């Protein structure tokens, strides 16, 4: 019931593969296999890269859908004006339960993502590349990929590259949360809106985009705009990565050209012939009814015209045998628990909305429904981040899509169907039991110096707790790779110098023949450019 999706579910493709090319040959494309499958990659001048992104109408694939060429030019303009080098960030954090397409790409085709990120870094003259992930499997894969290219966070390197791990939470994938986490803070929105292109990582102009977006850029750079636009719709060319789960024979990730009928995608995954509804865009998305789902094709424009949302590519049908409001309640309770706890609409409003939906389902009648609508309205446009608005959207869409079921609950006390729990949610305690790669380091407390100030427990609650006697416990703690930055900060801030980090070299992935040059795959190049310029070629 509400079982989580595997990190790497089955992958299928409609038509010819682009992003998933080579998946039929190996489980993971290491650098040599990546080059055999995709071929060499030519570096590009900045303006030429921006023109390519504009020609293929490339937009962010994380859900926001912002045009990539505008983001690229904005970062370049800010870097030129300030005379600084920007930062490139690959947002591979995927904390939403029904989404796995970025996790699949990071696990199986990490070098395609790095290709796109390195193209952008080369064009912008960036000297820092950061890949943000949420899961152990993606952390392992991307660290191995960086090692295969000879990339590291070593001081003095032409390009410093590192991996940052964030919690597997809904709010941690938002751009402002990612930037805050990279700086060593909590992976939560800061409550103020700043453009990453102006002030991102370390206050520098930052190009931050979704993992699939960079992979799409790498494909287009290899095959050219004309061939890329030969696939899919004219106004939304190329392919998209979809995660299909819910009432299906088995969850899967599907690469499909835009314009393919949604009903064909649902059929591939073994969905019911006439689903009661299809949730599109994930848990901040919108429900389509059965008729709309039958008419829709895979595109942002088509989905929007029929009441849906393509978003991050999550597609979740439910069958006629389950109570849709009951299914929505499970998601609503999870959304309420995902609050960052930083503002009233999120911390108080979402639990109240989930409770209101429960009252409606359990026979609260018209009064319960009106109370629920009032709570949803009070949550909208008042939060410190997008989580309250996205959750309110889910509530409103649920009430609008299942009017017959809603009427049965309000007027008759129920619809007579049980809730089968087909929408995926994380397993219980997933946040507390996240595994990570050991760094080889250990934090140790010198009890002869410790006076119980508790700063270590404040900075590293994952490793230290304050005991009843007012001192932190345990005395020693192994440090996972993704907490190294916080561990070093805790050591520096200990007022009594009682905390130390005993560091051992982390285990290195086995690499047969690491390349001598940490850069784009061979195939040409060009001088590095500080920012976008007219360029040639």
From TrEMBL:
InterPro entries in UniProt: ComplexI_51kDa_subunit, Nuo51_FMN-bd, Nuo51_FMN-bd_sf, Nuop51_4Fe4S-bd, Nuop51_4Fe4S-bd_sf, Soluble_ligand-bd
Cofactors: FMN; [4Fe-4S] cluster
Sequence segments annotated as region (Disordered): 499-537
SMART domains: NADH_4Fe-4S
Any one GO BP annotation for this protein: cellular respiration
Residue ranges of domain NADH-ubiquinone oxidoreductase 51kDa subunit iron-sulphur binding in the record: 325-369
GO molecular function: 4 iron, 4 sulfur cluster binding; metal ion binding; NADH dehydrogenase activity
Keywords of this entry: 4Fe-4S, Flavoprotein, FMN, Iron, Iron-sulfur, Metal-binding
Family the UniProt entry places it in: Belongs to the complex I 51 kDa subunit family.
Descriptive protein name: Oxidoreductase
